């Protein structure tokens, strides 16, 4: 009454094909036994190369069946000639197989060389990119340093321009205290003043906040309205009926008041 659904297809759970046991009758040589070396994954299922091998084996068996007997000298010479021709044919086929194998190896070698060249090109591009990034960072740092030095030299020139003739100026205390951006109110750190060093002078020290007796005295001086909170129930803004709904007249009054505002 229940069904199941797996995450795998049938081909992933399929085992190797079953090869049953067999018995060969005496005096018979089945052609299928010549393919006993082929197994699943190694020649099976048969491809073009296996089909060519089967056809070649059939031709060789037919050629062996047509060989002349060795009971006559003329037949022996004919048999030897046929065997020499078959040997040359086998060597030619062997050479073709070697050439095909060499071509396959050459293609594999080309692909490996191409892949190695692509990887090397990627590494070179990455190395050039890193060098370009480093040069850019060094360039930005140099530009920042030049801008910083330029601002500093401009400040020096402005300070020198204020006193071109080199005259001594007396301190104007009134001007310093009327200008809230002067050294009196906001001294610069580069002049040797650091405002955070004496920050404890701004801490509030109060007897009523730092001691228990002061807290008790402060609490006693507070009115009852501070320590005892009175909560009043808010009145409804709208006139409601017994069932809890807002009257239409009350809603219209609120809308009119909003429009008036």
TrEMBL record:
**What does the entry list under GO cellular component?**
axoneme
Q: Which domain of life is it from?
A: Eukaryota
Among Pfam families, the record links this protein to: CFAP91
User: Which residue range or ranges hold the CFAP91 domain?
Assistant: 4-156
Alphabetical UniProt keywords: Cell projection, Cytoplasm, Cytoskeleton
Give the UniProt subcellular location, in the record's own words: Cytoplasm, Cytoskeleton, Cilium axoneme
Family designation = Belongs to the CFAP91 family.
Q: Which PANTHER family match?
A: CILIA- AND FLAGELLA-ASSOCIATED PROTEIN 91
Name recorded for this polypeptide:
Cilia- and flagella-associated protein 91
What is this organism's lineage? Answer: Eukaryota, Metazoa, Chordata, Craniata, Vertebrata
């Amino acid at each position: 009454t229940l069904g199941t659904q797996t995450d795998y297809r049938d081909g992933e759970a399929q085992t190797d094909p079953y090869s049953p046991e067999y018995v060969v009758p005496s005096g018979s040589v089945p052609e299928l036994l010549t393919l006993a070396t082929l197994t699943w994954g190694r020649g099976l299922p048969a491809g073009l190369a296996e089909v060519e091998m089967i056809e070649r084996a059939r031709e060789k068996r037919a050629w062996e069946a047509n060989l002349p007997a060795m009971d006559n000298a003329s037949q022996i010479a004919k048999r030897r000639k046929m065997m020499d021709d078959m040997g040359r044919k086998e060597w030619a086929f062997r050479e073709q197989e070697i050439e095909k194998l060499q071509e396959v190896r050459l293609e594999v070698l080309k692909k490996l060389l191409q892949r190695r060249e692509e990887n090397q090109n990627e590494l070179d591009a990455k190395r050039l990119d890193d060098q370009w990034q480093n040069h850019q960072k060094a360039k930005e740092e140099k530009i920042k340093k030049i801008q910083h030095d330029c601002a500093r030299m401009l400040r020096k020139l402005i300070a020198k321009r204020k006193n071109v003739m080199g005259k001594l100026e007396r301190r104007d205390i009134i001007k310093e205290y009327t200008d809230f951006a002067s050294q009196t109110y906001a001294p610069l750190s580069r002049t040797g003043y650091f405002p955070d060093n004496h920050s404890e002078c701004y801490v509030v020290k109060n007897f009523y906040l730092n001691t228990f007796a002061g807290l008790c005295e402060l609490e006693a001086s507070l009115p009852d309205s501070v320590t005892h909170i009175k909560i009043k129930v808010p009145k409804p803004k709208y006139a409601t009926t017994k069932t809890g709904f807002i009257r239409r007249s009350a809603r219209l009054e609120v809308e009119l008041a909003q429009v008036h505002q």
